[in-house]
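Reviewers of the previous submission asked for a worked example of the structure-prediction workflow described in the proposal, so we include one complete record here. The input consisted solely of the amino acid sequence. No template or homolog information was supplied to the procedure at any stage.
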Amino acid sequence: MMTKRTKCVLAVLWCVGVCGAWGQQVASSWNVDDTNITIFTPAITDTVRLFVISDTHLFLADEREEPYKEYSNRMSKAYNTTKHFKTGEATDPMRQLQASMEKARQFRADAIVHMGDLLSFPSECGVEWSRGVLDASGIAWYYISGNHDWHYEGMEGSEESLRGEWTVKRLSALYRGHSPLAYAVDVKGVKLLLIDDSINGMLPWQVDFFNREVADGKPSMLFMHVPLAAAGRTSRGYTIGSHEWGAAIDHNYAIRRPQWPSDGHQQADYDFRDAVVQAGKDNLLAVCCGHVHVQTCSYLATVPMFTVRDNASGGFYCVTLVPQR
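From that input alone, the workflow returned the following structure tokens.
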């Protein structure tokens, strides 16, 4: 027979358990309606609107590109004409980046996030033109590189060394003082983490950066180009932390880059995915990626990971973070 004290203790424990479960449910509550993502969380006090795009694949070039034409030739023709994902009408990357800025203004976005492959190759003309369009939006914007932004196909060198070289030579203006490989910004109390995984892998210090940034408990969102490994998704696209990724599934390297390593990922890639999963149990609200050119949603344990359609075909997300009272 339970005493009155025992009953009271059990009642308190039941309430704590229910409230804790409910709080976790509210913190991770979200819905998707076409190109609109709404995330509800009690961790914020003001609505935050983020306009999210990736894979614009601009092919702009001028006479400064002449010395590099042998390396940019294939990608300079890859996205010259595209079909709009909704209407099927012919369009092009330049038109869609400009149209996206108008959508961002109509959405009243607090910030624009571009998750890479803004360019199809590191053209000076492309950097100058795209920065002009982004600046003209009048909205704060942030960029992280994709695997094409810094890449001249067939140029000698490792992906890591080529990324380092051409990020400095061509892409620096797009970061506006932020570190090219990992940085954090605050937008109305939400921490945006932008991390470059465009070599299909992570560096150990990037794992440390992520863990340090999420340790303060602030509501956060992670933006990367290449998606993390997820159940039911191909390891050729959803790469980071995949045990299947490596030379055995790399069929396109000959025309593009060095072959993926036969021993697959380094430990940092698995550590990073594990860190994201852990942060999703606490204060990481969502992960957003590009690269695969399709709109998907996957779960990494408790945290949702969204991929966006290519912006070359008009793709975008309007992400609204709503205070949950």
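Confidence is low (pLDDT under 50) at residues 1-26. We consider this example representative of the routine output the project will generate in years two and three.
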